[in-house]
Amino acid sequence: MTDLIDTHCHIQSAGNSAGERTTGEIWAKEASLTGDSLIANAVADGVAKMICVGCDTGDSELAIDFVREREHVWASIGIHPHEAQVSLDQDVLSAFKGLVDKPKVIAVGECGLDYYYNHSPKEAQITVLEFQIQLALEAGLPLIFHVREAFDDFWSIFDKYPGIRGVLHSYTDNQANLDEAIKRNLYIGVNGIATFAKNVSQLDVYRAVPLQKLLLETDAPFLTPTPYRGTINEPKRVGTTAAFLAELRGETLEQLAAATTQNAQQLFGI
Rounded to whole angstroms, how far apart are CA atoms 257 and 242? Predict the structure, then answer.
């Protein structure tokens, strides 16, 4: 079968006290899981490439350092909407901007808007999102978007910037916003949530994603797929989501694997 690509994970902080706090706390629960063991586990299970996604400036620096000398991994630099308020300092933004040209940086994100938690004020989220969109466009890089209960504002911002390439990470929204995303040529990232979704309309959305726009991801260490709920998620579990989606959508696993891998290669150049 075609090797799979995990287009969104946070393994750079596994076995490391640095990085984004919540992610690090989860990895710390299982000391045997290190960045290198996670890569080895993934490759052994047919996941040949992984994108390590940053959530703030420090976490992005960690991702860059992690991928530099390792095979199978690349970095995306991002400021998550939860971190927008504390990242507004011009020195912080300047330092972040300096990361875009580092080796093996292939995307900007995870960035976006999250009005579900509102850990940062909306105005700060919008400012930091627009900063990252402009940076990605200047660098010719795709974007990894996190959007939760904020699509009305997100689409109005998105449409101000022609030429955006990117993916809606961890998509769980409705058919209407899926249609808007496809109209704008965005890819759709699907992870373990699909395997434990109970809402029929949500499953219908996963069926409706065009195969040529579908990307696989884990969001490891979060969102472990069924039947592994209760354990820490790993990039190797992307195959579990792939198998679930293939059955749900009436495709063979080989068809889905080949298409999603090609999609990831086209978007991210890996």
Answer: 7
pTM of the model as a whole? 0.97
pLDDT digits 0-9 by tens, 36-93: 999 999 999 999 999 999 999 999 999 999 999 999 999 999 999 999 998 989 999 9
Q: Which of 22, 18, 4, 26 is nearest to 65 (CA)?
A: 18
Domains of the chain, earliest start first: 4-268 (3.20.20.140)
- H helical segments located in 3-162: 21-27, 35-44, 57-68, 90-97, 122-139, 151-158
Coil, strand or helix at 134: helix
Closest CA to 219 of 199, 238, 196: 238
Place of tokens 């990895």: 27
Q: How many CA atoms lie within 13 A of 130 on its CB side?
A: 13
Q: Residues near 5 by Cβ (< 8 Å), separated by ≥ 6?
A: 47, 48, 49, 50, 51, 215, 216, 238, 260, 261, 264, 265, 270
182: exposed, middle or buried (Cβ count in 10 Å: 0-12, 13-18, 19+): middle
